[in-house]
Amino acid sequence: VYLSGRKYLPPEQPRGRAVADAPKDKLTGRDWATMLVLIAMLPILAATAIGNQEIFNAYLLWGEENYNLVFFGETMPTSWLISLDAIISTVTVGGALLFWTWWAKHWKEPDEIIKLAIGALIAAGAPMLLALASANAAATGEKVSLIWGLGFHIINDIGFAMIFPVGLALFSRAAPRQVGGMFIGIYYLHLFICNLATGKVAGMIETMDGFSFWAMHAAVIAGGAVALVVFAVLFNKLLAPKAADAAPVASEA
After folding, report:
1. pTM of the entire predicted model
2. CA–CA separation, 20 vs 210, rounded Å?
3. What is the per-residue pLDDT for 192?
4. Phi and psi based region of residue 11 (left: phi greater than 0; alpha: psi -120 to 50; beta: remaining)
5. Angle at the Cα of 84 (from 82 to 86), degrees rounded to 5?
6. For residue 14, what pLDDT is reported?
7. DSSP letter for each residue of the chain
8. Distance between CA atoms of 223 and 137, rounded to whole angstroms?
9. Contact (Cβ atoms closer than 8 angstroms) between residue 78 and residue 60
């Protein structure tokens, strides 16, 4: 694929001592402020992802205890839920891209950080659905239908699809060009932070009832959405596209 597509790639940049010795653009005060804001967003982005990352941790334990996984006399392995999530997430990522493309044709697109907040609010609904399923299981004393799980995966993956690629685009665009590649790597640190937190939080499933455990996740994600809105209000001008990034105006004949 790479070799067949080389003709579409930009020309290779020159190399050598002359390039290494060439003067480099210095970071401005705005650049430093932008980098600090992006780094400060990492814990917030980690909070919005905690429901998604829990899929690989406590969710499987909860599902083993609470889902009715018997179909036609056979019990479905709980690990298959991860495969189900992979299928749904593939569809929702494409769906999210198509949605914003369609939206842009009819209305003005919201800023990336507002898109992140919208995605987080949607994602918060996923663990809340599990909280309701837990309450239902506790009230009836019976395991719940996998329909609850299907709803969880669909809502979670729609939310995550509206967060992850948009966040990556924000970091790639807003970061100073001199450190753009590094900040794409820094963006992924929010998943590292989230996985550390998930490992700690997952242990609480042994001491908390299911409703409280998943409602806590929903509250954390919703809190992340609120924090993103605050960031949008405080730092909108800082994170907005620079004049140099705007589409060039056609010159007069």
Report:
1. 0.85
2. 58
3. 96
4. beta
5. 70
6. 73
7. -TTTTGGGSPPPPP-SHHHHHS--PPPPHHHHHHHHHHHHTHHHHHHHTHHHHGGGTHHHHHHHHHB--EETTEEPPTTHHHHHHHHHHHHHHHHHHHHHHHHHHHSPPPPHHHHHHHHHHHHHHHHHHHHHHHHHHHHHSSPBPHHHHHHHHHHHHHHHHTTHHHHHHHHHHHS-GGGHHHHHHHHTHHHHHHHHHHHHHHGGGGTS-HHHHHHHHHHHHHHHHHHHHHHHHHHHHHHSPPGGGSPPPPPP-
8. 27
9. yes
State mean pLDDT over 151-159.
Answer: 96
Q: Which of 116, 113, 81, 126 is nearest to 96 (CA)?
A: 116
CA–CA distance, 210 with 131 (Å, rounded to integer): 6
Q: What are 32's two structure tokens?
A: 């430093």
**pLDDT higher than 50, residue 17:** yes
**Sorting pLDDT into bands at 50, 70 and 90, what band is 19?**
low
pLDDT in tens, 193-211: 999 999 899 999 999 999 9
Measuring CA to CA, which residue among 191, 126, 178 is closest to residue 152? 126
* Contact between 126 and 225 (Cβ < 8 Å): no
Amino acid at 111: D
User: What is the overall mean pLDDT for the chain?
Assistant: 90
Q: Range with the lowest mean pLDDT among 21-25, 97-101, 125-129, 241-245?
A: 241-245
Virtual CA dihedral for 217, 39, 169, 158, nearest 10 degrees? 0
